Structure formats: structure tokens, C-alpha cells
Amino acid sequence: MDFSLTEDRQMLSDTLNRYLAEQYPAEHRIKVAYDAPFHDATKWAELAELGVLGALAPENVGGFGGAGFDITVVFEALGRAMCPEPMLGTLMASRLLAAAGEDQEALLDGSARYAVAIGEIEAPYELDHIATTATGETLSGRKSCVYGGNVADVLLVAARNGDDLSLYAVQAADAQITGYGLIDGGGAAEVMLDATPARLILQDAKAALEDALDAGALALCAEAVGLMDVTNAMLLDYLRQRKQFGRNIGSFQALQHRCADLAIEIEQARSITIFAASRLEQPDRARAVSMAKNLIGRAAKLVAEESTQMHGGIGMTWEYPGSHYTKRLVMLDHQLGDTDFHLERVMRLGAA
Amino acid sequence: MDFSLTEDRQMLSDTLNRYLAEQYPAEHRIKVAYDAPFHDATKWAELAELGVLGALAPENVGGFGGAGFDITVVFEALGRAMCPEPMLGTLMASRLLAAAGEDQEALLDGSARYAVAIGEIEAPYELDHIATTATGETLSGRKSCVYGGNVADVLLVAARNGDDLSLYAVQAADAQITGYGLIDGGGAAEVMLDATPARLILQDAKAALEDALDAGALALCAEAVGLMDVTNAMLLDYLRQRKQFGRNIGSFQALQHRCADLAIEIEQARSITIFAASRLEQPDRARAVSMAKNLIGRAAKLVAEESTQMHGGIGMTWEYPGSHYTKRLVMLDHQLGDTDFHLERVMRLGAA
Amino acid sequence: MDLSFSDKEIAFRDEVRAFLQTELPAHISDAVRKGGESSKELIEEWHAILSKKGWLATTWPKEFGGPGWTPVQRHIFEEECCRAYAPRIVPFGVNMLGPVIQAFGNDQQKAEVLPRILSGEDWWCQGYSEPGAGSDLASLKTRAVRDGDDYIINGQKTWTTLGQHANKIFCLVRTKADGKPQEGISFILVDLETPGIEMRPIKLIEGGHEVNEVFFTDVRVPAENLVGEENQGWTIAKYLLTHERTNIANVGFSMQALEEVKALARKVIRNGRPLIENPHFAARIAEVEVDLEAMKITNLRMLYQAQKQGAPGPETSMLKIKGTVIRQALNDLARRALGPAAAPFPSEMLEGNMALAPANHANEAASYFNNRKLSIFGGSNEIQRNIMTKAVLEL
Amino acid sequence: MDLSFSDKEIAFRDEVRAFLQTELPAHISDAVRKGGESSKELIEEWHAILSKKGWLATTWPKEFGGPGWTPVQRHIFEEECCRAYAPRIVPFGVNMLGPVIQAFGNDQQKAEVLPRILSGEDWWCQGYSEPGAGSDLASLKTRAVRDGDDYIINGQKTWTTLGQHANKIFCLVRTKADGKPQEGISFILVDLETPGIEMRPIKLIEGGHEVNEVFFTDVRVPAENLVGEENQGWTIAKYLLTHERTNIANVGFSMQALEEVKALARKVIRNGRPLIENPHFAARIAEVEVDLEAMKITNLRMLYQAQKQGAPGPETSMLKIKGTVIRQALNDLARRALGPAAAPFPSEMLEGNMALAPANHANEAASYFNNRKLSIFGGSNEIQRNIMTKAVLEL
């Protein structure tokens, strides 16, 4: 039993946290997050150089990581900085390309941006009701809220292909893409496919898609842990400094006890994320990840709402960085399956 | 719009509260509640004389009440005193006898005790899965946790009768009855029917049974409101007097804010009970009563648990009357449909 | 016990309903239905319609041009306005300053201020909070120093709602530095055109602009603009607080929100079925629905008490707390129901056949974030619990 | 990061498992499975079995007759004992007094007290709380006045768990009246046979007898029974508190309770189906299960920290709070699952074919009520939040 990071991961964590603190501070983040293209190509290249992309993939496909704890180290740091770069799609695409036996050098060196188009408006979280359909070498349908789809060069698209759920590579230039920003920062796209040329890269892709979705959900959990740590630190700082009725508001016991409960839920969130990371390559992966995403959904909402409430008015303002942490914490639950979706999945999967 | 009681009801409320405070104080209640036969025949007769039984039935069957607010006035007072007498079965029996067109003079004058045997071990709350079956003029099956069944003279039993759910009168002497006490006080019985003689009093009894169950659930809600008021008053008294760290513990803000939330939930509980009482003879009765029982289930548990917690050790002792209020508040949810059962019923019944 | 309205009240309700049906323009209710902020023009148009009917200043007695309604009538009116998706009446002039002038103003103030509120000539905003005085309002620092026939005001106000539309502001200012902080506060009226005033927008969490900072630098205001006596401001503020607290539960808005979230859950498809058929989501809705049903009665009970006793008591803190909890829970459900479709920003980015959310639901996430304010402003829920501790619980 | 136990630890776990399989008598585990209190005889029988194996005093180093286990080994042992439905080791002698004597006792005390704990000759109970000193332990009033070679003790202790089985009690007593309250407290050992002691049962909410009041009237105790220095009692109590706090999360018991509630929900029929198929009840279970899964890791993380740093830190307050919340939630679910079948009292009233509850589940309501104590005793959850405020949150 050892709850410390390996030296390599600790180094990656330190490097990435330092880089983001210096090069991606809150003001820069807010600018990138809410202005098209919601992406800073220079920083992206620098992140790739730092090895962030490589850390998401295992050695056999050209990376040097790819394990659960590599993913959590990277995304926890991205969360601390609220970094809006399209890293989630990159992670998921890397796993899909690996499953399909496709080369991913361009993905890992940062020169090509990939987005993963699975969810649809009536099937945002689940694979069973995907309506996008393949006909020969073309796809038709609509993929909704494709994270990073607004800047992607290549889209990996899940589509019905006879009885199979298959995976296709689509050149962004061939699809009709409408990009837009998100309320919690970053960009996404609607992808309209109308007999759009597509290359089949994996015939029976269901297992690979579930693996990618679970890896993505794990990444979101780690991101939330980073976000919660910073949010909580900001809240405690505020409570120590803000005075009302002649006292620091942190001296009011009703707030103290609520903060104690927040601290507990944040540790629980950290724990369940560690648990899910440890199970990413195990047979009980799906259940562990769904447990994590369920707990994270509850904890993140609690931390966000309580932090806003205890901050009072200031936490409601755009100018205060904490408000953006709040939004990201809440909207995380709208990605790759919400609290209820994952609790139902835990129930369905039953005992491990 | 008028939220005051009519003069008659106010008088009944005052009389009953005064009688119970003087004649059924906590020490007496605890003795009756936990010692067989869990019933005080003298007090029962006095309650009948006071008009408590008559208040539960309308004039056309020999009473002088029977409306929703008559029921709530009586049971709120019983709740304040944690009175363990088998009044719930009496109320439900009265409504069933009225539906069946049976005479109920003996019920209303207190000379005959009735119990209502509907629930079974595998169908404690719902009518659809009752297994007790009629064959000719006899019944076979087992009725579980029949409140007041331990002292009843007559049992009104719901049983399958071909395609109908019918209502039968069974003389207690004819059935095999095992009486026992309940953890929150009062008595109940297991009723074993094995070709037991029974008199059919209502062929299609489903509507009458639902009416009786709803009236019973309303009574439990009112009882809970009475219990919560007393529990809350005891808690606030305790917080004003108990000193720790040189201060009244009621001066600790963390406890104050929790007490504020309790006060709110108690008012909400009172409101939803008023609402349900006002709908008892209306087409949306079932939905209103289920809303009430659902909210009461949540509020009563919260009040009980928070009161115990804020009392500290003393609230955990048998000697402190508050602990018995706690038990009753929690165990109320095990009678006539729990929080989840009634929420599901609200969902099923949809918009009014 | 009688939970129903009297025949007279029902007739009144029908009258209000008929009025709204014919007089509330569709382009206004459509805008409200869509969510987000109403424009200044729409609000002024609606205020003018109400004013013409004599129904703008619902709390005013007849002598000042109000309808002279009972609390129950006001409740009915507000509930019907919600049902019809009428814009909320902006309260600062009619519901806040108006009653203050009627109770504390001199004849000249009554004659000058009140008619201009009714006519819409003046749009008032509120100068109470300061950066260092939020929940602890009595610690406010903006100074007004007497200089001949004027006061000279220096300081900063914040959280001034819809100040960008206003031409006037009423302020609490410090006119005495020593003694208890509450004792040195005065209530004064200020024209926003006066030199030395600067209003800056505060952008809120969801990107909207509804509150402002107001900076006062040597702002010279005629002493006759003082309302009541010098240093009587705290008394006035407390009086105003009780007026602000009627219909504090906002039951009408929550009823509207409940219907909206149910409609939304019928439209959203999840796992091949309407979301409303998901037992967990349906249970979430049902639980809030039960709480709201109880809240309706709690609200009526307190209305009944207020009508009997003349003024709302400290129990209204309960209405504030539970009312905001319920409304926020409904905002939360609407946001959840949408899944990823809640995320686009600004929400108008995707409209028509590009829309992700069902019609009128694109703003659910923004509403959720914006309405976190409900439990913070107007006396945070923590302050309300403090009030209850003293006045209701007697701890 | 490595969440798994080492090969050595796994071998240890297998050894414990094998021991429990062969040495834990079925009549003992059956009694535990049934719930409610274990009898004195069963506890003593089990203590003797453990003592013979050298596994009774799991926290003691080898020199005093303990197994010299690491924190992880202790954790494994306790988890396996839960899985096997072994009775909980009564902590007052082995886990509370033992470490105190080892750290603060003199050689004579070590020689006399420790072996008798291991052998079961002495059953110790705890004399800390008083009617006026619960959460605020330092305000205790029981006096010990030096009189020649003795102390004379007067006062009252309460909440003395299983005092009815004990022959000895260790007490905190006041030996100095002036100065800070913490400074005048001493730690002393008392034989319950000493004249002047009266023990009275406290009946608990669910009807059980597990705690007692102890009255001291001119009780003469040899001065050599003092542990450590006079007035050093508060230091000792704080030291003991940190020992009491290992495995404070009680994860093993919660895991056992989770399995029990799942088994129960499979057996109970509601609406023609097993209760576990009801989506709402299943969701309640699943949510607690997720919290418990996280708690397991939180517990291991803190165990890992404790093993690295030597002693558990203030973060253990989190384990206490969340651990009790989870356990109480499981008790709550078990009670709910039974419906009316939870109500009979005493639960043994209905047994055999008269039983309402599935086997071993008749006590669920009593357990629910009894376990409300978990968040009250050993430092209430409110006290734990106060500790966190200072030591973890630094507010």
C-alpha cells in the first residue's frame, strides 16, 4: 500500500502545475475560455512539449503513461488551473486509436487535434441509442456537444453499422461543423453528417468506446478534485479575511461546521478518484468509474453551491475567479454521464 | 381563507389536550405503552366520554365529526401526549363500517374495540398483493402488525374474494391472535386465519379500504405534527438550559441554524397536513394524503435525529421522555406506507 | 379551517386573469418565458400598462394612487402574473421607496416622488450595500456631510440592481460618525444626473449585467432630499425591510418553474424514453413538488396571519429560506434535465434547427447560476437563520 | 500509488482468516449476526480465545505481550473480524488503559495491570464523563482529595459503558480546584469493590443496558493507584484520545452492515417483488455503497499517513464524522427495509414461524436507535467539526 506518486508522476505533476500557474493564470484562462476559438494553439504546443499528451498514452503506442494515475495527475493539474484546452477529447481519442490499431503520432506530438463524437442530443451519455448511421463509406446523423470539436482536425465518430456500433475517422473539413463556447468555458461543436465521407477504423467498437468514455469520466473526476481543492482554498482564505459584524466571518461556527463537511466530501472525492484510477485496467473498471463520477457529481455541486453561498455577493461575480471554478464544478456533471446516470450504472453493474 | 379552528374543534382540542396532560402524563404513557395489554381501558372509556371517538365519525353514522380537520385535531393532541391507545384502528374501522352500512354504535361509545387488518408481511402497505383469501364464510391467511389487534373485540379484515377485494368482520375470539408490544409503544398483533368464520360486510371494498388507509395516513401525519411540536419545544428548552464550555449550548450558532431549519420543516409538515385534511373528501384525496405522508416521513426523521443529536447523551436514555418521542416519530414511517411508498404514489397519481 | 378563497376573492382573481389575457402583450410574455433578463423597454411597457389600470403599486393605499388591495388580493395578483408569464414588477420605486415616502416623507416629497413612480418618469434604484457592508449593513461608510443647504456625499455603493436603467437612487448614508453605528445613518434621495456619480456594471457569474457599483465623489445633494429626520435612516431601513418581505416566498415563480421543469422532462429524451419516465428524475421532481405544495400553504398561513395582525412577523424568514431552497432546487432540476444541452454560451448561439434545448429552455444553466443569488441577497439565508434564532426560537 | 496490500500483508490476512474460521465458535458469531448486545460470557470467551493466540491487545508492542503489529496489520485484523462476525473487542482495558499504563505507568503498574488485562482477570471500564461534563470534559467535578497515603473520591461519573461487567474503573478526577480546569485533573485507577461506589444502570432509548452511572461517596483509593503525576490527567486523556482514534471510521462494521442490508433487501418482498428491485430503495443503497467505497480509501490513506508519521492527525475527525454518518445511514436503510416488521418489541417476542423479519434482522430498529450514539459519544460530531475548524481548516 502506497499513496504517494511515483517520482516520474510527481515530476510531471510539479512541472505541469508550475507551467499552468505561470503561463495559464486565471486572467489568461478566462480570456481563452470564453472567446473563440476557446483554445490557445501556442500553449497547446507547449503542453505537448512538456509531455502532457504523451503522459496520456502508453509506450506501445508512442506515449509514456496512459495508466489511471497518469490521467489523474494530468487532469487534476488542468483542473487546478481550470484549463479549457481540449485535452479530454485527446485522451479519449488516444485510447480509441490504440484500440483501432491506428497510428497516433500526430495526436501525441500535438500537431493534429482530435475530438471524439459519441453523444447525440437524445443519447448524450449512453451507447445504446446512437442514431448516427453508416452507409458504406459515409455517415449521416448529428453529434451534439462534441467537446473540442470546434478546433479538431479529425473526428472519431461512433455510428451504427448494421448490427455493430463502429468507429469512424472523419476529416473535420468534410463535416458541417458549428462551433460554440460553453458556459463554463472552452469550446464544443455540433457536427452535422450528411453522407459525409468516413473511414471505418474499428468494426465492433463498443468495448473501445466504453473504455474511452470511462477514461474520460475518470479524467473529469480528477479535474474536479483539482477544481475543488482550489475552490476550497479560496473559500477558506475568504472566510479568514472577510469581516462582518466586526469579526472574520470564518469565526462563525455555522460556517465552520459547513466547511468541515466540505473538507470531508473533498477527501471522499479524492479517495474515490484514486480508487477509480486504480481500477482503470481491471474488470471492474466500469463500476469503479461510475462510483467515482457519481460521488464527484454530488461533491462538486455541494462544494460549488456552498462556496458561492458562503462567499456572498462576491462569489456571484464574473470578476472573481472563484465564480468560474463554480461553473466548471457544476457543469462537469453534464459531461459523460451525470450523477443519476452513473448511480444507475452502479446499480446495473451490481457487486463487483 | 381561514386558518383558525371552528369553535367546536378548538374546544375539543383544548379539552383533549388538557385531559391528556392531566390524565395521561409521560410516566403513565410510558407504563401503558410498553406493558401488555398496551392499553388503559379506563382511560379509553374516558376518552370515549370526552367525545374523542365521536369526533372521528360523521353525524349520519352516529358521530359528530369525521371530517379531515376533526381527525387532525384529535390525532395532533394524541401525538402531543404520545398516547398509545388504539385510536388509529378505531378511525379506520369507523370509516369502513360506514362504507359497509354497518352499525357502529358500540365502536363510537367505546364499548367494542375494533382493529383493521389489511397489511400482510409481503404486502404491508398496498392492496394489490393481499394473499388472505375468502372461501365461503371463512378466511385463511395471515395479517401482520395489526395495530390494536391485541385488544380488539372485532377485526375488519381485507381478503381476496374471487376477483374482488372484500371486507369481512371477524370476531377476535374466532381467530388465532398473538399480541405484542411495539418499539415505539402501543400494541399490535399477528392474526392467523385458518378457515376462520367471517362475515362479509362489503363485497367490493377497494375504494373503502383506500379511503380508510388515507384517513389513517392523515391521522398519522397529524399525530406527527403534535409529536414534532413537543419534541422541538423540549429541544429548545434543553438548548436554553444545558451549559457546556461555560455557555448555554443554545448560544452555539451551528446548533441555532440547525434549529432554524427544523422549525421550517415543522411548519412545512403542519402545512401539508392541513392541505391533506382539506382534501380528504375531494377527488384528489389520495395524492394530497400521499404528499403529506411523504413530507411527514422526511420531516419526522429529521426532527427525531437532529433532536437526539443536539441533546447529546441524555436524548439516548429511556428515562428522558424525549427519547420516546424520537422513537414514535421515526416508527410512524413504518405505518400505512413509508416515505418512498407515498412518493411513488404521488408520482403514479401525477398532476391533480 | 378553510383554504379556499372567498367568492369576492375568486371574482377578483377572474378579473386579474381576464386583464392579463387581454392586456399582457404576447411579445412580453414570450420574452419572460424564454428566461434571462427582460429589456428596459419591455419592463417600461409593462409598467405603463399596469399603471394605466391602477395596478402597478399593489401595496399602496388608494389615497396615493394604489389599488388599496388586501394582502390576499396582492397574493392573488402576483400568482396570476406568474402564471401568465408577466415580467416581475421592478420593486425599488413602487414597493420599496413608495411605502417609505408614504410613511416618512413630507408633503412635498409625497407630491413630487409618488406620482413620478406611478407614471414611470422615475426609475429608482437602491443604494444600500457597500463593499464592506453586506450582511452587516449597519457598518456602512458612505458619508453625507451637511454643507449649507446641501449634503456632500462620498463613498461607494454596490449590488445596485438595474441601476443602469435608473435615473434616481435612494441611499443609506452615514451622517454621524460616533455612537452606535445604527444611530448615525440617514435616508436620502439622489438624482443620478448629479455631478460626481459614476455607475459601473458588475458582470455576474452567468455573464449577465443586472447589478452595478455606484461611486460618489463630492456629490452635492439638496438637504431637502433627506427623508425623515437626520439619523433616522436605520428605522426607515427596518420599516422597508418588512415591506420587502411580503410575498417573499415567491411561490408563484416556483409554481411556474415546476410546470416548466415537468414540461422539459417530458420533452427531453434519455435512454430512448422521456426523462420524466426515469424513476430517479421523476422522484426528484415529485419531492420538490411536495415541498412546494406545503410551501403554498405555509405562505397562505402567514398571509392570513399578516392580514389579521397587520404586519408580517419574523416567521417570514422561514418563507425566505425555504422559498429560495425550493426555487433553487427547481433551477437545479431544469439544468440537470438538459444534460450537455445546458452548456452552450451564450445560449442564443444555437437557435432554430441548431438548438440543443427545447424551445424556451436554452437559458436553464444561466438561470441556475444567476438564481444562486436568491439565497444571498435581501438578507442571506444565514442572516435569516440568525433572525429566527432570536425572534422565533428564542435561543 | 498502490492500493493493494503487500504479499506479506496478504499472507497475514490469510492467517487471520484461517484463525477465525477455525477458532471463532459458531455460537458466538451467530449471536453477533443476530445483533443486539453480546453477553458478558460470550465476550469473555472470545477475549480468552484471542488472548491465548496473543491477538487480544492488537495495539500493544511485543514487550508487553502484544503482537507488535503495524497499523495496516491491525486494520486487516479488524476488517477480518468484522467479516467473520466476531464480537468487537471491548476496548477499555486493552485499547485504552493498556497504552496509558505503557506510556505513563510506573513499573509496578505495568507489572500488575497489563497481565491481568490480557488474562481477562480484570474488566476495566471508563470513568470520564459526568452529568455536567460531556463534550466539555475539562469541566469535570469529581474530586480526589489526598489524605495520607490515599485519595478520597467524591462525585459522579456517567455513560460508563459495560460498567455492569467490570471490576475496575479508570477515572479522571479533579485534584486541584484553581487554575485552568485542564490543569487540575488526574488519572487514577479504582477497584469497583471499594466501599462507597454504587453503579446504577442507564436504560437506553431502545431498552438496552450498556451504560451506567457510577456514584462515588468518600471512596478511599491508595495514592499508588495514581497513573503519572498528580494533575497530569489531561495530558494522559489527550494521549488516550489519539489511541482511541485509530480505526475510528469503523469501515469493517459498515461493510458488514452494507452486506446485511443488501441481503435483507433481497429477502423482503414489497409490491410483489424483492425490495432490492425497487429503484428508489436500490438507489438509496447504491449511494451509501459509493460513499463507503470512498471511505475505505480515505481510511487507508489516513492509515498510510499514520504509519508514515507515527500518529494519527486531526484528519481522523473526518473519519469519525463520515464513518458514523455512513454507518447510521445503513442502520436507517435496514430499518426502512423491514417496514412494519421492524416494530415488535422486544424483538424476541416473535420468533420461529411467528417471526416478521427475516432471520437475524429482528433487531434492526433497535440497532438504528442505539447507533444514534455513534455520532454523539467519543467526541460528538459537533466536537469533531470544532477540532477540524482549528486544526485542519485553520479558521
Please tell me about this protein's structure:
The complex is a heterotetramer, with 2 copies of chain A (352 residues) and 2 copies of chain C (395 residues). Chain A has 3 domains: 7-108, Butyryl-Coa Dehydrogenase, subunit A, domain 1 (Orthogonal Bundle); 114-204, Beta Barrel (Butyryl-CoA Dehydrogenase, subunit A, domain 2), CATH 2.40.110; 207-351, Butyryl-CoA Dehydrogenase, subunit A, domain 3 (Up-down Bundle). Chain A is globular. Chain A has helices at 7-23, 26-34, 41-50, 68-80, 87-100, 105-108, 206-241, 253-278, 285-311, 321-331, 339-349; strands spanning 114-117, 133-135, 138-147, 154-161, 164-171, 176-182, 187-197, 199-202, 243-244, 247-248. Chain A contains 11 helices and 10 strands. In chain A, a hairpin with a 2-residue loop joins strand 2 (133-135) and strand 3 (138-147). Chain A is of the alpha+beta class and 352 residues long. Chain C has 395 residues and is of the alpha+beta class. Chain C has 3 domains: 7-89, no CATH class; 124-232, Beta Barrel (Butyryl-CoA Dehydrogenase, subunit A, domain 2); 249-392, Butyryl-CoA Dehydrogenase, subunit A, domain 3. In chain C, 46% of the residues lie in helices and 15% in strands. Chain C contains 12 helices and 11 strands. Chain C has helices at 7-23, 26-34, 40-53, 71-83, 91-104, 107-119, 233-244, 251-267, 279-309, 316-338, 364-370, 381-391, and strands at 124-127, 143-147, 150-157, 168-174, 185-191, 197-203, 209-222, 226-227, 269-270, 273-274, 344-345. In chain C, the strands form 3 sheets. A 4-stranded mixed sheet of chain C has the order 1-4-5-8. A 4-stranded antiparallel sheet of chain C has the order 2-3-7-6, with no helix packed on it. Chain C has a two-stranded antiparallel sheet with strand order 9-10. In chain C, helix 5 runs antiparallel to helix 6 (107-119) and helix 10 runs antiparallel to helix 12. The mean pLDDT of chain C is 94. Classes of the chains: A alpha+beta (352), C alpha+beta (395). Chains A and C meet through strand 6, strand 9, helix 9, helix 10 and helix 11 of A and strand 9, helix 10, strand 11, helix 11 and helix 12 of C. Strand 6 (176-182) of chain A pairs antiparallel with strand 11 (344-345) of chain C, so a sheet runs across the interface. Chains C, D: Residues 125-219 form the Acyl-CoA oxidase/dehydrogenase middle domain. Chains C, D: Its cofactor is FAD. Chains C, D: One of its GO terms (molecular function) is oxidoreductase activity, acting on the CH-CH group of donors.
